[in-house]
Amino acid sequence: MNFFRKHIRVIFIVTVVAFLAGTFVIGFGGASLAADDSKSAVLLTVNDSKVSLNLFNSLYNNTLQQIRQQNPNIELTDAQQRELKARILQELIQTEIFAQEAPKYGVIVSNNELQLNIKNNAMFFNNNNVFDDNIYRQALASLGISAKDFETLIKKQILSAKLRLILIPAVKVSPSEFADIQNANPTITLEAYSQLKVNKVLNEWYQDIMKNYNDKGKIVIKEDLLQ
Question: Topology of domain 3-172+218-226, per CATH?
Answer without folding.
Answer: Triger factor/SurA peptide-binding fold (1.10.4030)
